[in-house]
Specification:
Elements (H helix, E strand, L loop, with lengths): L10 E5 L21 E3 L20 E3 L20 E3 L22 E3 L20 E3 L12 H4 L5 E3 L20 E3 L21 E3 L22 E3 L20 E3 L20 E3 L20 E3 L22 E3 L20 E3 L21 E3 L22 E2 L2 E2 L2 H8 L5 H4 L8 H35 L3 H9 L28 E8 L2 E4 L7 E3 L3 E10 L2 E10 L5 H18 L5 E5 L5 H4 L7 E3 L19 E7 L4 E6 L11 E5 L3 E6 L5 H18 L5 E6 L5 H6 L24 E7 L4 E3 L19 E5 L4 E5 L5 H17 L8 E5 L5 H4 L17 H6 L4 H6 L5 E2 L13 H14 E10 L2 E4 L7 E3 L3 E9 L19 E9 L6 H8 L1 H9 L4 E6 L5 H5 L6 E3 L5 H4 L8 E7 L6 E6 L11 E7 L9 E7 L5 H15 L4 E7 L8 H4 L17 E6 L5 E5 L14 E5 L3 E6 L5 H21 L6 E6 L5 H4 L13
Parallel strand pairs: 1-2, 1-32, 2-3, 3-4, 4-5, 5-6, 6-7, 7-8, 8-9, 9-10, 10-11, 11-12, 12-13, 13-14, 14-15, 15-16, 21-25, 23-24, 29-30, 34-35, 36-50, 39-43, 41-42, 43-45, 47-48, 52-53
Antiparallel strand pairs: 17-18, 19-20, 19-22, 22-23, 26-27, 26-28, 28-29, 31-32, 31-33, 33-34, 37-38, 37-40, 40-41, 44-45, 44-46, 46-47, 49-50, 49-51, 51-52
C-alpha cells in the first residue's frame, strides 16, 4: 500500500464513476473510514469489493451500470447504509441475500434494470423502506404479503415487467406518493385500489392496456394528484373523470387514438405540461387558451392544420415549449409568436409555406427553433433598418432596375445596361467646385462659432482656468504608466462588508487573497494583511479597515496592502480611514478585534511578486495531437521513439525547444493547428524564450532522436504504420469541498459530456482527471485550507488509480492556465487554423468566393410581375366560342335565392338580376362528352359518369355569411344526398365570378344594390332613381351592368348607361321612364347589348323606354334625376393601361403579383399594399393593416416600375401618388367598375 498523506479518513464523499476498476480496485479506499457517500457507477465491477467492509459509516452507495451478478459479501455488514442503488447490473433473484433487508437504516433500494424474475426473499421485512424501484426486470407476480408491512413506502416503481395484476394489499400503501406501472399487461386489472391511495401525487400507467371501462370512475378521489400518464393505451377519447383532477400539473395522453379534446380541458387550471402527441387530433379547443399556467404543450404527429390551432394561443403567457412536428401545418397563428416566454418551438416536418412576421418578436431568447423538413418554407424578411436615402439596397434587396430586370429574366434595354455617359463638362465642373467651396466656407464658419460658444461656457466655469492650466502641465513619469484595470468584484465577495464580523485578506502576488477564519490572528512576519471589521451602528452598516505590515515583508506587499485597503474602502463606499498597523506596534483598537492575543509566525506564507526563489523546471513530455473536428486534444504518451506513428502529429516539449514531428500521412490541418498551439505555448508560457523545431519522418535531427532514446541515428527503429485506436476519453471533474472536520470530492455534472471552462468557479478548487494526467485548478477566491486539502487529495487520487509511468500531476492557478490544460475544455482559447477577422479585400485575395457567400445573405424578393407585359383582352370571337362551348355542355340550371331562412326557387324573370344584399344558388348539370368511336344512341339515357354537377353559391358584397351557413346545412346536404360526393361546390363573391359561370348569362348580368324585396316593403316609400353602368373588363364574358351612384360625373362617353326615373302618381301606381344612354365612343357590342338588357330586364307596361345618344338628353327628367348636368369624362383611354398589383409578405418574402384584368374594389386587401397604374399615374394604395416593411418595399417597387414604364412607354410618363383607404380620388376609383363603399370586415 502506498504511503498516504493522512487525509483519507476525513473524506466523507467521493465519486469514482467512469473509472476502470475491472482489473484492480483501489486498496486505499479502505482507509476512508469516515466515508458516507460513495459512487462507483460505470467502473466495470463484477463483484462487491472487499474494501467496502471497512466503510462502517457508509450511508449511500451507488453501483449503477456495472456487471454485478450477486450482492453477497460486505454489503450486509454496512449497518448505517440508507440508500443502495444497483440498477443496470445482472442481478438475479438468487443473487440477493435476505440479510440485506435486515439493515434497519435502509430506506432507499433500487434494483431496477436487472434480471429478477421473482421478488427477493425477505423484502417484505424491510419495513423502513421509503423508496422501492423494481422496474425493468422480469417479474410475473407480486406476492400478496409484500405490501402488508411496507406501509411507509412513498415511491414505488414496477414498470416494464410482466405483471397482470396487483395484490389487494396495495390499498394499504396509504402514504404512497408516486406509483409507476408503465408497460405492464394490466388489461384485466380494474385498479380498484387506486382511489384508496389518497396521498398519491404521481401516477404513471403508460401502455397498461387501459380503456374507458377499466379506468376507475372514482379516480377523481385522488385530489393530490399532480402528474398523470396514460399514454399508449389506444384511448378513443380522454376519460371524463380526468377533467375533474383540478390539481393536475402534468398530463401525458400521447400515443392514443384521441380524435377530439373536450372543451372541459379548461377545468385543469393548474396544468403546466400537456402532451397530446401521436393522436388523431384535427383541432385543439379554444378553451385550451385559458390554461394560463401551461408551460409545455406537445402536439406532435397529429393532423393539425392552420385552423386546428386556436387563434388565441398567444394568451398562453407562460408557454415556454410548443412542439407541433409532423402535422399538416401550412401556416401558424400570428399570436403564437406573442407568447413572451417561448423558449423552444418545434414546427419540423410540416408543410409550412411561411411564418408570420411576428416570429422576430421572439428575439434572441429562443433556445431552440426547429423548422426542418418544410421544403416550401420561406422565412419572412427580417426588417433591417438601413440608412435613409440608400438608393441601391433596401432591406438587403437590390432595387436597381437593371438587377430586377435580370432577376425577372427580362431583356435589359441598352439605356439601363450602359448608363448614359455624357462627356465631361469642364465649365460645369468649375461651377460645382465653386459651390462646394462656398458651402465649405459656411461650414467652417459654423464650426468656428460652435468652438467659440464652447470656450465661453468653459470661461464661465469657476475652475475652468485651473483645469486648463493643469491639463497643460507635463505629467510625472509614474502618471504616464499604464495601470492595469482591476475588477475588485473578483477579489472581494458579495458578502464581504455586508455581514457583521471580521474578514482578512493576505497579499499574494500583488493581489488580495481571503484567508480562513481559523487562521485569524496568526500573522506571518514576511506577509502583509488587510483586515475589515463590519458592524451595525444605528441600523446602518459601518466599517473599520486596517492594513497590517509584517517586519520582514517585501516592498511590493507593503505597497499593495495600502493600495488595496483604499480600494476596498472605495468598493464598499465607506467613509472611514484606512489605518496602518505595523508588527509589534499595533493599536489597542486593532488588538481588540481578536478574541485571543495575536501570534507572529516566522517566515512568509505567500511569495513576493518581484522575484521567485526557484527557477522554473520543465519536464520533457511527448504528446500525440488529435483533432476531433472541434478542437485539438493533446494526450501524453511515453517519451520514446516507439510511440510515434505515420498518421499523426506529435509534440515534444523539451523546455527551451518544442519539437513538432509530422508523420507521412498526417493531416495538413492538424499540422497547422499544432504549430499554432506550439506558438501559443512559447508566447504565453515561455516568455518567447523557446523555439519551434520542425521534424519530418525519416529526416529527424540527432537532438530529437536522443531525447526519444535513439542514441545512434543509423539504428533508428521503424515508425509504426498502424496507430493505436484513439477516442477522446470523458474527463472527470471533481470539486473539492471542505466542511467542519470532513472533505467531499463529488464529480461535477458535465452537460452533454462536453467539458467547458464555465464550469470552473473562482471560489472553488477542482481536480481534473484526464486518465494519465491529473490537473489541480485553484480558483482565485479559493481558501487556503481548501487548497491544502486539494493538494493532498490530488496525490491520493493520483496514487489510488493505476496510471502509466509518464503520468503526472499539474497544478494550475486561475488566470495562468497552460495550453495543455485549456485544450481539455471545448471552446477555451481554441486554435483556429484560418483567421477570419481579415478585411474582405484580403480574404478575396486568398481565392474565397465572397459573392457566393453574400448571395445566401440576400433577402428573397419577387418583382417579376412588374416587368411582364399587360394581359391582352380576349377577342369577341374567342369569347363567343368559349361561351357557346360552355353553354353547349350545360344540360340544366336550377336557380335559388335566399328568402328569410330558406332558399326558394328564383322567379324566371329575375334570372340574371343579382342584388348585393342577397345570396343565390345555381345548380348546374353539365353533360361531359366522352370520346367514343361507336355511334351514339340519342334516345338512350345519359350515363351517370357523363354528368357533372356543380353548385355555384353567389354572395353579394353586402350580404353576411349567414346565407353560406344556411346553404351548407340545408341545401348542400340535399344536393349531396342526390348527387353523392362527386358534387362540386364553388363559392363566388360579387364581381369575382369565374368566366364559365358568367357565360351562362350571355352578357345579361345585372347587379343591383340592396335587397330584392326592399321596393315592395312600403308602398308609401318613393321609389329611388336607379343608375346603371355597363362595362367589360378584359373580355366580353366579363360584361356586367352594375348599379352606381346617381351622379352625372360618373358618365363617360366610352360606355353605355341605364337610368330609371320613377314618376309620382296619385293612385300610387307604378310609372316611370327608362333612359338608355349611349356614349359617343361606345362600341357596337355594348350598344346592342344594353338595349337587349333594357328590353328584357327593365321594360314594363308601366314604364316607357327611350334610347338616347350622348348630346340628345332631355333637360327635364334626365339631368334632374342625375342631380344636374355636370362635366364628365369623354374617353376611357385608361382601360387600355389599367393594371393592379398586390404587394405582400404573405409567402414569407416580398412579392408583387398582378391581379387579373377583371379586378374589382374588393380585391383591395386590408393586409397588403396595392399598386394601380392607370396609364398616367401610379397609385400606392395602403391597406389599414399593412406592415411598415411592406410599405417601404412597395414604395421601392413602385419606383422601379415607373422607371421601367418610362423606358417601355416614354410617351406616357407616370407619376407616383399615395392613396389611403376611404380617401381615394376619382382618378383612382374610375378604374374600378361599380365603385362603392368599402366593406367593413368584422
Amino acid at each position: 500500500m502506498a504511503t498516504t498523506t493522512g487525509v483519507l479518513p476525513f473524506v466523507r464523499t467521493i465519486d469514482f464513476s467512469r473509472n476502470d476498476f475491472s482489473n484492480e480496485f483501489p486498496k486505499n479506499l479502505s482507509l476512508m473510514s469516515g466515508l458516507q457517500y460513495l459512487k462507483l457507477d460505470r467502473t466495470d465491477l463484477k463483484e462487491i469489493p472487499e474494501e467496502l467492509a471497512n466503510l462502517g459509516k457508509l450511508e449511500q452507495l451507488s453501483l449503477k451500470n456495472n456487471s454485478l451478478e450477486k450482492l453477497y459479501g460486505e454489503l450486509t455488514t454496512l449497518s448505517n447504509l440508507r440508500s443502495l442503488n444497483i440498477r443496470k447490473n445482472n442481478i438475479k433473484t438468487s443473487g440477493v441475500p435476505h440479510e440485506l433487508f435486515n439493515l434497519y437504516e435502509l430506506t432507499t433500494l433500487d434494483l431496477s434494470h436487472n434480471k429478477l424474475k421473482d421478488i427477493p426473499d425477505g423484502l417484505e421485512k424491510a419495513k423502513q423502506l421509503l423508496v422501492l424501484n423494481l422496474s425493468n426486470n422480469q417479474l410475473l407476480t407480486i406476492p400478496p404479503g409484500l405490501f402488508i408491512n411496507l406501509t411507509d413506502l412513498l415511491f414505488l416503481d414496477l414498470s416494464n415487467n410482466y405483471l397482470e395484476t396487483l395484490p389487494p394489499q396495495t390499498r394499504r400503501l396509504t402514504n404512497l406518493q408516486t406509483l409507476i406501472l408503465n408497460n405492464n399487461p394490466l388489461e384485466l386489472f380494474q385498479l380498484r385500489q387506486l382511489p384508496s391511495l389518497q396521498h398519491l401525487e404521481v401516477l404513471q400507467m403508460r401502455n397498461t392496456q387501459r380503456n374507458l371501462l377499466n379506468l376507475p370512475s372514482s379516480l377523481d378521489n385522488l385530489i393530490n394528484l399532480v402528474e398523470l400518464d396514460i399514454s399508449q393505451n389506444n384511448l378513443p377519447k380522454l376519460p371524463d373523470v380526468i377533467y375533474n383532477l383540478i390539481n393536475l400539473k402534468r398530463l401525458n395522453v400521447s400515443e392514443n387514438e384521441i380524435k377530439e379534446l373536450s372543451p372541459n380541458i379548461e377545468q385543469l387550471q393548474k396544468l403546466e405540461t400537456l402532451n397530446l402527441s401521436r393522436n388523431e387530433l384535427t383541432a385543439l379547443p379554444n378553451t385550451l387558451c385559458k390554461l394560463i399556467k401551461l408551460r409545455k404543450l406537445f402536439v406532435n404527429e397529429n393532423s393539425l392544420n392552420f385552423d386546428g390551432i386556436p387563434s388565441g394561443i398567444g394568451k398562453l403567457s407562460s408557454l415556454e415549449v410548443f412542439s407541433a412536428a409532423c402535422n399538416q401545418l401550412e401556416m401558424v397563428p400570428e399570436s403564437l409568436f406573442r407568447c413572451g416566454n417561448l423558449k423552444k418551438l418545434n414546427l419540423s416536418f410540416n408543410q409550412l409555406i411561411t411564418l408570420p412576421d411576428t416570429i422576430y418578436l421572439l428575439g434572441n431568447d429562443m433556445d431552440m427553433l426547429d423548422l426542418r423538413n418544410n421544403p416550401d418554407l420561406v422565412m419572412p424578411a427580417k426588417p433591417i433598418e438601413m440608412q435613409k436615402g440608400d438608393g441601391v439596397e433596401f432591406y438587403n434587396i437590390d432595387f436597381s432596375l437593371q438587377n430586377q430586370l435580370r432577376l425577372a429574366g427580362a431583356q435589359i434595354p441598352p439605356s439601363v445596361a450602359s448608363p448614359n455617359q455624357n462627356p465631361k463638362d469642364a465649365i460645369a465642373r468649375k461651377m460645382r467646385l465653386r459651390r462646394a467651396r462656398a458651402n465649405g466656407d459656411q461650414d467652417s464658419a459654423k464650426i468656428l462659432k460652435g468652438m467659440k460658444d464652447i470656450a465661453e461656457e468653459k470661461c464661465n466655469n469657476e475652475n475652468g482656468d485651473d483645469a486648463m492650466v493643469q491639463s497643460l502641465q507635463p505629467k510625472r513619469w509614474e502618471e504616464t504608466l499604464e495601470k492595469p484595470p482591476l475588477d475588485y468584484s473578483e477579489f472581494f465577495d458579495e458578502d464581504d462588508g455586508h455581514v457583521e464580523g471580521l474578514t482578512i485578506w493576505e497579499i499574494e502576488n500583488f493581489l488580495p487573497n481571503k484567508i480562513d477564519e481559523v487562521t485569524h490572528g496568526k500573522f506571518y512576519e514576511g506577509d502583509c494583511y488587510i483586515v475589515l471589521k463590519t458592524f451595525l451602528q444605528e441600523t446602518q452598516l459601518s466599517w473599520e479597515i486596517y492594513f497590517w505590515i509584517g517586519s520582514m515583508a517585501s516592498l511590493d506587499k507593503k505597497a499593495c496592502a495600502a493600495i488595496h485597503a483604499v480600494n476596498l474602502r472605495n468598493y464598499l463606499g465607506a467613509r472611514c480611514r484606512t489605518v496602518r498597523e505595523e508588527q509589534g506596534d499595533e493599536s489597542d483598537e486593532f488588538l481588540a478585534l481578536f478574541d485571543n492575543d495575536i501570534v507572529y509566525i516566522e517566515g512568509e506564507h505567500t511569495g513576493t511578486g518581484f522575484y521567485t526563489i526557484e527557477n522554473a523546471t520543465h519536464v520533457t513530455r511527448l504528446y500525440i495531437v488529435h483533432n476531433d473536428d472541434t478542437s485539438l486534444d493533446l494526450q501524453p504518451v511515453k517519451v520514446d521513439f516507439s510511440s510515434l506513428d505515420i498518421e499523426n502529429v506529435f509534440l515534444l516539449d523539451a523546455g527551451t525547444k518544442i519539437f513538432l514531428w509530422y508523420g507521412k500521412k498526417s493531416k495538413n490541418t492538424v499540422k497547422s493547428k499544432s504549430r499554432l498551439m506550439a506558438e501559443k505555448i512559447i508566447k504565453n508560457e515561455r516568455k518567447n524564450k523557446a523555439e519551434i523545431v520542425m521534424e519530418v519522418q525519416n529526416n529527424e535531427s540527432a537532438e530529437f532522436l536522443k531525447i526519444l532514446n535513439v542514441n545512434d541515428p543509423t539504428e533508428r527503429p521503424e515508425v509504426k504504420t498502424t496507430p493505436e485506436n484513439w477516442s477522446r476519453k470523458s474527463p472527470r471533474l471533481y470539486i473539492i469541498q471542505l466542511g467542519l472536520g470532513y472533505l467531499e470530492m463529488p464529480q461535477v455534472t458535465i452537460p452533454q459530456q462536453k467539458l467547458v471552462h464555465t464550469l470552473l468557479n473562482s471560489k472553488n478548487v477542482y481536480l481534473l482527471d484526464c486518465g494519465p494526467d491529473l490537473f489541480v485548478w485553484f480558483g482565485k477566491k479559493s481558501t487556503r485550507l481548501v487548497r491544502a486539502a486539494a493538494a493532498k487529495l490530488s496525490l491520493e487520487l493520483f496514487n489510488m488509480i493505476k496510471r502509466p509511468s509518464y503520468s503526472m500531476i499539474t497544478r494550475v492557478q486561475e488566470g495562468t492556465e497552460t495550453q495543455i490544460f485549456k485544450s481539455k475544455f471545448s471552446g477555451w482559447d481554441e486554435v483556429i487554423a484560418v483567421d477570419f477577422t481579415r478585411t474582405a479585400q484580403s480574404v478575396q485575395r486568398t481565392g474565397a468566393d465572397l459573392a457566393r457567400w453574400a448571395k445566401t445573405q440576400e433577402t428573397k424578393a419577387d418583382l417579376s410581375s412588374l416587368f411582364m407585359p399587360r394581359q391582352n383582352p380576349m377577342t369577341p370571337l374567342e369569347a363567343q366560342q368559349l361561351s357557346e362551348d360552355w353553354n353547349y355542355d350545360l344540360d340544366a340550371m336550377e336557380n335559388f335565392v335566399l328568402e328569410g331562412k330558406k332558399f326558394i326557387r328564383l322567379p324566371e324573370e329575375e334570372l340574371g338580376i343579382f342584388y348585393s344584399g342577397e345570396c343565390y344558388v345555381f345548380l348546374c348539370r353539365y353533360c361531359i362528352p366522352i370520346d367514343d368511336d361507336e355511334e351514339e344512341d340519342h334516345n338512350a339515357p345519359i350515363p351517370e359518369d357523363e354528368i357533372q354537377c356543380v353548385v355555384y353559391f353567389w354572395q353579394g358584397r353586402d350580404a353576411g355569411n349567414m346565407g353560406w351557413l344556411t346553404f351548407t346545412f340545408t341545401l348542400q346536404k340535399k344536393f349531396k344526398a342526390m348527387f353523392g360526393e362527386s358534387l362540386e361546390v364553388v363559392r363566388i363573391h360579387q364581381q369575382q365570378e369565374n368566366l364559365k359561370f358568367m357565360s351562362h348569362f350571355k352578357g345579361k348580368f345585372i347587379i343591383k344594390t340592396g335587397k330584392r324585396i326592399d321596393r315592395k316593403k312600403d308602398k308609401n316609400t318613393k321609389l329611388p332613381v336607379e343608375f346603371y353602368h355597363l362595362r367589360q373588363n378584359g373580355s366580353a364574358l366579363c360584361s356586367r351592368l352594375i348599379q352606381i351612384k346617381t351622379d352625372a360625373t360618373l358618365l363617360n362617353s366610352a360606355f353605355c348607361y341605364i337610368l330609371f326615373v320613377p314618376f309620382e302618381t296619385e293612385d300610387d301606381s307604378e310609372s316611370g321612364i327608362i333612359y338608355v344612354w349611349i356614349g359617343s365612343k361606345a362600341t357596337e357590342e355594348d350598344t346592342k347589348l344594353i338595349q337587349e338588357i333594357a328590353e328584357t330586364k327593365f321594360n314594363s307596361p308601366w314604364y316607357s323606354m327611350q334610347v338616347i345618344s350622348e348630346g340628345e338628353e332631355p333637360q327635364n327628367f334626365f339631368w334632374v334625376a342625375l342631380g344636374g348636368k355636370k362635366p364628365y369624362d369623354t374617353d376611357a383611354e385608361f382601360m387600355n393601361y389599367t393594371r393592379l398589383f398586390r404587394c405582400s409578405n404573405e409567402k414569407g418574402y416580398f412579392t408583387v403579383a398582378e391581379k387579373c384584368s377583371d379586378f374589382c374594389q374588393d380585391d383591395l386587401a386590408d393586409d397588403d399594399i396595392m399598386l394601380l397604374d392607370n396609364g398616367e399615374q401610379v397609385f400606392l394604395w395602403l391597406g389599414s393593416r399593412c406592415s411598415e416593411v411592406e410599405i417601404k418595399l412597395a414604395y421601392k417597387s413602385a419606383q422601379v416600375y415607373i422607371q421601367h414604364m418610362r423606358i417601355k412607354q416614354p410617351d406616357r410618363p407616370r407619376k407616383l401618388f399615395l392613396t389611403l383607404k376611404n380617401k381615394e380620388s376619382k382618378r383612382f376609383t374610375k378604374c374600378f367598375h361599380g365603385w362603392s363603399h368599402h366593406i367593413q370586415h368584422m
